[in-house]
Design the sequence.
């Protein structure tokens, strides 16, 4: 739905909305819903400017003769207003808000044959606790590298499970689905979605063989349930490089890739990072006075 926003005042400077026209390359798509993405246009961007969302630093990158800041919206975030905070090197701080809308996610009921993958024993829980520390460290990775956000699909196949589903394993509710599941034949090569550096790899209790890639400034991709891993921590990979093979390790019902994306330590729907050739909507930073324009909030319905 297209809506018109009256530009509020922030530090005596107007906020406006900006709509980008059709683009050729894959770019993040704004979706102002839990699990989505908020994009902020920075037409007067200056070097060393830092942008924060929910008090976490977010990625900033050039696009079409301007700069964009990209924030992940948490799946558990409630509908309402959230602040971007722009902090310039000269000491000037500016704020502007975006409004996150409600989105209802469906349920998914799965049967897991290995009961320990649903109700781990005491020894399993010790392992899970240790792995949780590794996972937390990986998702907190923040490098000053220019973000690589022009993603490609890591594998071709059937989407077997979408992001955000409320999940029930053996009729027991667990955390919502945190990524995109792509089913294909076991052993199918898995590609790096974008240029990056390997943060961590390993065999995890629930996720099986898994890889974390750092794409710069808090943009991180994750590849789970692999049958084989072809990279090691510290390796630099190019977009399209083979980093592993699709498998069915960890808690699974069949061979597939679990593909997940973090932005500012927040899991987002990977679909909004993958090529669909749709124009992104953004909010314009309050650094430039402008008349209100249309803003379009996109949320893909047919995932």
Sequence:
């Amino acid at each position: 739905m297209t809506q018109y926003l009256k530009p509020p005042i922030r530090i005596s400077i107007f906020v406006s909305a900006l709509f980008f026209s059709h683009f050729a390359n894959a770019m993040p798509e704004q979706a102002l819903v839990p699990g989505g993405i908020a994009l902020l246009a920075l037409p007067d961007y200056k070097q060393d400017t830092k942008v924060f969302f929910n008090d976490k630093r977010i990625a900033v990158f050039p696009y079409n003769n301007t700069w964009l800041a990209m924030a992940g919206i948490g799946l558990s975030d409630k509908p309402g207003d959230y602040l971007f905070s722009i902090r310039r090197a000269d000491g000037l701080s500016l704020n502007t808000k975006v409004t996150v809308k409600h989105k209802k996610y469906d349920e998914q009921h799965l049967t897991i044959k290995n009961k320990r993958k649903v109700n781990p024993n005491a020894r399993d829980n010790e392992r899970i606790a240790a792995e949780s520390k590794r996972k937390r460290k990986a998702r907190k990775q923040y490098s000053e590298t220019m973000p690589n956000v022009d993603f490609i699909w890591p594998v071709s196949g059937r989407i077997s499970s979408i992001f955000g589903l409320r999940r029930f394993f053996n009729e027991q509710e667990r955390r919502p689905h945190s990524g995109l599941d792509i089913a294909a034949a076991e052993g199918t090569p898995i590609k790096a979605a974008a240029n990056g550096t390997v943060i961590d790899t390993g065999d995890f209790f629930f996720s099986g063989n898994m890889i974390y890639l750092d794409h710069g400034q808090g943009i991180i991709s994750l590849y789970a349930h692999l049958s084989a891993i072809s990279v090691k921590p510290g390796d630099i990979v190019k977009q399209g490089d083979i980093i592993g093979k699709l498998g069915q390790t960890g808690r699974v019902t069949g061979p597939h890739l679990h593909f997940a994306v973090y932005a500012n330590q927040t899991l987002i729907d990977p679909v909004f990072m993958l090529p669909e050739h749709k124009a992104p909507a953004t909010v314009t930073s309050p650094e430039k006075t402008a008349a209100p324009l249309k803003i379009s909030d996109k949320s893909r319905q047919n995932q």
Confidence is low (pLDDT under 50) at residues 1-25, 277-303. The chain has one helix and 27 strands. The domain at 2-103+276-296 is CATH 2.60.40.1590 (Immunoglobulin-like). Helices lie at 122-139.
